[in-house]
Amino acid sequence: MKYIMKKNKMMLLAAACSILLLGSCGTSKNVQGSGSSSASHQKENATKGSVSRQSETLRKLAFVQKVSDNQVYTRNIVGNMSFTLQAGDKDITVPGKLSMRKDEIIRIQLFIPILGTEVGRLEFTPDHVLIIDRLHKEYIKADYTQVDFLKKQGISFYSLQALFWNQLLLPGERTVKESDLKKFDARLDVAGDAVPVSFRNGNMTYAWTANRTTGRITAADVVYKSAQNGTSNLHVSYGNFKSVGVKMFPASLNLAMTTTATRKKQEAKISLQLNQVKTDSKWSTQTEISSKYKQISPTDVLSKILSM
Q1: In 3-state terms, what secondary structure has residue 138?
Q2: Nearest of 204, 250, 197 to residue 77 by alpha carbon
Q3: Which of 112, 190, 263, 294 lies 20 to 30 Å from 46 when distance is taken between CA atoms?
Q4: Between 151 and 104, the higher pLDDT residue
């Protein structure tokens, strides 16, 4: 009898130990399962975050592509215009003409009202800047490294061309290639229809405002800041878009410039209001300078423009 009771106790003890052992194994499995689940969630969240960032990058790239695709296909833009200059106590409006040939020239001609006689001409080519003052029989012809405020800001013909042609630009590059589009940032998170697009390069900041739906550029800003050479701001606003083939081109360009990169602070506002936008190619890019005209120093180009 005692043997049987002792045997039963041992069986109960063994059963109890087995239950405790099973419970302990179950607990261990639950703890391990919980840790594995937590690690899995962390990995899943990291994957989702990576996918979200990739998606945002692709959305930005697609929008910058849309902006770039708005550029017109034509090589020539020509139009009579009303030209207004405001600087200091000067506020003048005269008839003029804008003639541009892609990668060759940007030409602005100013005329005497009613008579139609040319009084001034401003030209930008890949090689030089030319300013002709027919009233004073003077001219400036210089390359971009000789013009102080252009040299200090690293502005080239192709930078100016992009601004006049309502396009994105990259300093030092003739064009913005498709492979360059990833260099631009687009703030798609801002509210409203205006999306900021930007690119930074050293002391220079380039910024554009583009319509969210069409990708059309409505404004451009070029800002240069240097402790040594001062600060310059160029703001260009575009409007009154006209059809040029299957694309649109702004018949209204308004430029506002402030600079301390010259010896003294200078401010100017220029408005070009084109009566029409044509693609005429029957005109020469060559300009003859009379031998009677005096060539003057290129160091004060802005003052010469303002004195015309």
Answers
A1: strand
A2: 250
A3: 190
A4: 104
Contact 151, 145 (CB under 8 A): yes
Q: How far apart are CA 24 and CA 12, in angstroms?
A: 18
Cα–Cα distance between 25 and 303 in angstroms, integer? 89
Please compute, for residue 219, the number of CA atoms within 13 A of its CA located in the half-sphere on the CB side: 10
CB 155 within 8 A of CB 172: no
pTM, full prediction: 0.80
Structure tokens at 151: 């040299």
Q: What is the mean pLDDT of the chain?
A: 84
**What is the separation of C-alpha 171 from the centre of its chain, rounded to a whole number of angstroms?**
10
Q: How far apart are CA 40 and CA 253, in angstroms?
A: 57
What are the tokens at 300? 């004060």
Q: Give the pLDDT confidence of 51-67 residue by residue, as tens digits.
A: 567 789 999 999 999 99
- Taking a C-beta distance cutoff of 8 angstroms, is the pair 163, 149 a contact? no
Phi-psi domain of 116 (left: phi exceeds 0; alpha: psi -120 through 50; beta: other): left
| Nearest-5° Cα angle at 11, 9 to 12 | 65
Structural domains present in the chain: 76-307 (2.50.20.10)
Rounded CA-CA distance 295/141 in Å is 8
pLDDT at 12 over 60: no
Q: Does the structure show a pLDDT above 50 at 199?
A: yes
